[in-house]
Amino acid sequence: MAISPFFITGITDAEGSFTASITRDPLSRLGYTVSLRFNITMHLRDSILIKKIRCFFKNIGVYKESGSFCYFDVNSVADLDLIIEHFIKYPLLSSKRNSFYIFKIIYEIIKTKQHLSPQGFLLVLAYVNILNTPIKIVTLSEIVSKFGPLPILSLCPVVLLSYKTVFLYILKNPWWISGFVCGEGCFTYYKGFKTSTKGLKKTYIQMGFECSQITNDSYILQALLYYFGVGILYQDKTVTRIRITQIKHLQHFIVPFFIKYPVCGFKQKQYKIWLKAVTLIISEPSSINRNEKIITVTKDLTSLQKMI
Questions:
Q1: Which site among 8, 25, 70, 164 is 20 to 30 Å from 173 CA-CA?
Q2: What is the value of pTM for the model shown?
Q3: How many Cβ atoms sit within 10 Å of the Cβ of residue 157?
């Protein structure tokens, strides 16, 4: 099945990045080179998914592996044209929209070769300085002493999205959710203990679905709650997550959604094992035998998580 472009945007909102770098290059006209990079990084167990994403983009860029991670990298201006075109047509929803906006401005300056003049180079530097972590003081001082101060930027405001705006977007384009969940979602379980009336301690398993995101982007998760109509939002200073645990909610909202809009890669394997446990809870009456079966399935979930 072909990957939906909205899936690509969803997984980029979860795992993508837009960056720029300045490096010394004695062979270049001004002594420095400006490089752009679009990247999606995932655990090595999702190497097949990363390769599918690269295939979606007509095999531009490169696929790389390093340690426990795999990467899809696009660096050349010619290849980045396809990336820019995609995210204009299928816009990002998270705060990465802001990064893409600055990234696109730098791309347009480089594409028209304005960066080869001292004024254009300083303009690019000013944008790079707000796209990434600030340029190192030593490097910046060196450049400023040679070419002059960075220009003051006048940026058009990037409108912050509300959860209702995001909800309306994903309502029309639910494949975005599947892509996002491949990066930030989890089909999981929670283990506890109950004491019977006879004083016996029994293991209790509760199945759940979770999604997390930095708190600055909590509106994304609020939109997901609004979309599914169930669940609880947990929020702290840095991370916000949603959690859906009631079995009837999993049965009637989460399972049907991911049957119609399946996740890919590792999350698809996780979902299939998770679904076995959910199905056992729904279809079999409560008994010691059923509980043992569920515990066995959840052990498979844990084992899968530990796999490379």
A1: 70
A2: 0.92
A3: 7
